[in-house]
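Methods — Computational structure assignment.
A single polypeptide chain was analysed. Its primary sequence is given first, followed by the predicted tertiary structure written as structure tokens.
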Amino acid sequence: MRLFSGLTTAAIGIACLLTAWLASTGDRALGHLGSVFPGFALDWGLNPIAFPFFALLGFLTIAVAIWSAEDGRYAWSIAAFAATMAAVLMARSVAAFMLTWEAMALVSFALVAAHVEVRMVRRAAFSYLIVSQAGALGILGCLAILAVHAGDTSFAAIARAAPQLPDTWRNVALGLALFGFGSKAGLFPLHFWLPRAHPVAPPNGSAMLSGAMLKIAIYGLILVFLNLAAPVSATWGAIIIAVGAVSAVGGILYAAIDTDLKRLLAYSSIEHIGIICIGIGAALLFARINVVLSAAALTAALFHAVNHALFKGTLFLAAGKVAKTTGTVDLDRMGGLAAALPWTSGAVFVAMLAIAALPPLNGFASEWLLLRTLASGMDVADPPTRAVAAGALFALVLTGGIAAACFAKVYGIAFLGRPREPHTTARETFGWQTAGTALLAMTCIALGAVPLLAVAPLSRLAEALAGAPAGSLPALGITPAMSAIPLVAVLPIAGVIAVAILMRRRRVRYAPTWVCGSTPTVATQYTATAFSKPLRRIFAFVLFPEHEKRIEIGSSPWLPSLIRYRTSTKYILDNVWRGMTARLLNLSRQGRRVQSGHLRLYLAYAAAIFIFIVVVAR
């Protein structure tokens, strides 16, 4: 039974890859199921917009199936989850889309609630369910508005009627779509369910939730904004950029200060969804100015969506292996895992270079393409558009710097140094779990070394959606420059080689770590909390403190041993009251200058009032 479930999951992944190839060739109708009730017809088909999402879903599902072969638990849930996500991508009518969307939500809820016997898991699962259903209502409202205007519930009819949609109703529909799909994707301020739900799911479930399901929400956003409700004004592009920038910066800030490995990865997913939304917003922003730049921004967004599925899937699967080995996901209790988990350590190292956007990995390639596009847009844009693009550039640069610090903390604390606690397991050997993570990590290297493998087909789709001439991105000089990305890696590699040569020539002497004359122990190593303290102090004005509560994890090694939670309403009210009190006291202190007790100041008041009365009386 375990083998059959694993093969079924892998077969669904392979089917998704084949479907991605069929979708890339153009629109295809797959079936129609009529209904006696108007508006309940079920249409199925393939849309070119869905092909990148089929591709990332298929590849991630295959890797998760390989990883799950060693354990086998939740394999049927993973297979059902992948199937429902594929069904969402094939839905071509309102009823079919909502039916499959709700099926996907229910299966994902089952994965989040896998350990429902734990109280915190129940809270996380119900938070996710409430947000999911609220978002579904927003999506239904959006599609209902578009369908009523078109007089038909099929997506083809809705897209044909979209140009004649009144602006008022278009804006209402787009607002509902941003709320519905944004809540599912984890955009600020509707992100709070994500760092609660993703960590409590099993590792293969977390990989599918973060790597694939969040991208299905991105697919819905692109489908509505660029197809079903097009054309969209540049104002919506600026709104999506702003939401994406806040999500990117906020997500990576909370990831940088967290010490729970899976929660940290969940916050990082919010960051990368924000980066993808910056690309989508830039595509809408540049659409009226330069369609080629619009296509380039959309290409970067789609490329980053594919890349995020690869390196985040790697990291969540590796987190499951780490939790099984150490019995915890608390970074402050980890150390020296590179010796015990050499294969997992190598995959994590590659994925963390990619997620921190360092060359020559795929994360750098997609973020560099987006940065280059935004910088190019500033040369041809009007002042308001240039200001929005500059803000997006600043957010991307800030996000990249904090991400580098965040994942240097993770790898340095967890995998380097010496073990803080003894491990009872033997040294890791290459098996099914390491094969699954290695497959994703190797793909990160491949798309970083040869990014045109993904950029070329994605650019053709983006050109079609943006209305740009075919082959216009190479003419802009963006895609040819992608082939030079691997050369950038020569610089840091050459630097490392030069340092190694100098060390050998100068015969650097190695000495034990100095700890004020005492003997170094594992307790004197840096902790994740200490490493992130400078960031916590610098950005304290935008970070909400967290309260800690320990829970019993029983026999579930991947559940967090330390769950941080926020008493959000109480905390916010307390801080609003403290802030108001502090400002009132400060205002009172400033008021002392007016009532200082000096007679000359009071005489000056009287003279000023007398002069004022004389002037007014005239």
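Note: The radius of gyration is 27 Å.
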